[in-house]
Structures are given as structure tokens and as C-alpha cells.
Specification:
- 12% of the residues lie in helices and 53% in strands.
- The protein has helices at 7-12, 31-40, 121-133; strands spanning 50-61, 63-74, 78-87, 90-99, 102-109, 113-119, 148-153, 156-163, 166-174, 180-190, 196-211, 214-224, 236-247.
- A 13-stranded antiparallel β-sheet has the order 6-5-4-3-2-1-13-12-11-10-9-8-7.
């Protein structure tokens, strides 16, 4: 059974954290990782274990549809993304989630009539990939001791970490100042032919803002693409602007 926890319940149950970020914590990392994290987290910022976001944008279903959404991401448990859109003028509300090792999708017309209900191992594996790439909205989660950093060059750090048995290589592209430009990984997906497999997935980030000491991407384009190059896109389906971010 999918977890029935609400977004507010997930957020309200976060235990308090008191430790603060110090540049010495990342002093031994490769140059590219250190440049990214030093840009993303200001010295003295409280180490957050969760972030709550508000966003608006467009999602590609049958054409591009406007949406509004709110999301809570917890390093220790997962995420809930709750959104609302309209299809042919009919309101659709629902959520995508990954909680305590289980992924689910639940969408309803008028908030009452189910139009999509999905769970199971393939949904979970795909949701883990989304949770992993969305670590860029909670940079403190990438400072954990179990995250192994390497780099292809000074502008391409790579973070390797494991979530519920799924190990990923999260490839980042940054500017000279450490601003995040793109993030990609291999995410579980069903192809048009019906087979499941890992496919390149990620986002390009056009703007950033600072909220409470954390500098995160705030305007993004997300999709599946046909190569390891973040600029070679096939299957862009999500465009969003983050309007609020609160860390806890």
C-alpha cells in the first residue's frame, strides 16, 4: 500500500538540527565539488535535513499545461510533490511521492475521481532516481560522509551515493563561480516498447536564488535526453520556477 502521509505531516515531523556548515567540512573534496558546495551553502548556515518548495510552471501531458505545486523533500525519508493543473478546463489534483522506500503516483479529477494510481517496484525505482537528482534542492544532503565525490574536470563534479539499494552517479555541470548549470543521472524508465531500463535524465538550470543561506536552482527545464550531454535534449516535459524555499 502506498504511504498515505500528507505533505504537511512529512514536513511537521522533521527533527530539529543545530549544526552549522563550515568550509572545513568540504576541504578534502575535489576542486569541482568544493566549488559547487561552497557556492550552494553559505558558511554558518544551519545544516538542513529537509526543504519545502513552492513552484509554478508547465508540464507536458497532452500539450503543455500550466501547474502549481508544493513539495517537501526529506533527506531521511523521501519526498511528496503535490500539484494541481487543468486538462480541457477540468481540474486535476494529485501527487507523486517516494516515502520510506516506496514510490507512488495518485491523481484525481476534481480531487475525487481517480485518473492515475500507480505503485510497485518499477514506480519505486523511478521515484528513487527523481529523489536523487532533486538533491540539488537540498545541497546539505550532498555533504554526507557516504557521498563519494569525483570530477571529470574543474567544472564537472560527480556525486556517487546509494538510496534504498540504488546507487547512482549524479553528474553536475557548474560555472566558474560554482553556479549549478545542469544535473544528470541514469533513471529507471519504461520505454515506448514497454521495456524498463535506465535512461539519461536530468535538468538544465537557467536561474538561481538564495534562501536562508542556500543557493539553489529556481528556473529549470527537465526531461529525458539521448546522450550524456545535458544540452542534447529529447523528451523535455517539465518547466518550472521555484518561488519559495524553506529549509529545516
Amino acid at each position: 500500500m502506498p504511504n498515505l502521509l500528507t505533505l504537511d505531516e512529512l514536513w511537521d515531523a522533521i527533527p530539529p538540527k543545530e549544526s552549522a556548515f563550515r568550509p572545513t567540512q568540504i576541504a578534502e573534496l575535489p576542486d569541482a565539488a568544493r566549488r559547487y558546495l561552497a557556492h550552494a551553502i553559505a558558511p554558518g548556515t544551519r545544516i538542513a535535513s529537509a526543504v519545502r518548495l513552492k513552484m509554478r510552471g508547465e508540464i507536458k501531458l497532452r500539450g503543455w499545461l500550466p501547474f502549481t505545486a508544493e513539495q517537501a523533500i526529506r533527506q531521511d525519508r523521501g519526498f511528496i510533490w503535490s500539484a494541481a493543473t487543468r486538462l480541457y478546463g477540468v481540474p486535476i489534483r494529485g501527487s507523486d511521492s517516494f516515502l520510506d522506500g516506496e514510490g507512488a503516483m495518485q491523481w484525481k479529477l476534481f480531487g475525487l475521481l481517480p485518473v492515475m494510481m500507480a505503485s510497485g517496484s518499477d514506480i519505486t525505482r523511478s521515484a528513487i532516481g527523481r529523489f536523487q537528482v532533486e538533491s540539488v534542492w537540498l545541497p546539505s544532503a550532498l555533504c554526507r560522509p557516504d557521498v563519494a565525490w569525483t570530477q571529470a574536470d574543474a567544472l564537472r563534479p560527480r556525486a556517487r551515493f546509494t538510496t534504498h539499494g540504488e546507487t547512482t552517479d549524479l553528474d553536475l555541470a557548474i560555472s566558474d563561480t560554482g553556479r549549478l548549470r545542469a544535473a544528470t543521472l541514469k533513471r529507471w524508465r519504461q520505454t515506448d516498447g514497454g521495456d524498463f531500463g535506465y535512461r539519461p535524465f536530468g535538468g538544465v538550470f537557467d536561474e538561481e536564488r538564495t534562501f536562508g543561506g542556500y543557493t539553489i536552482p529556481t528556473r529549470l527545464r527537465v526531461g529525458w535526453h539521448g546522450s550524456e550531454n545535458p544540452g542534447t535534449w529529447e523528451g523535455e516535459f517539465f518547466r518550472a520556477t521555484i518561488t519559495e524555499a524553506h529549509f529545516r
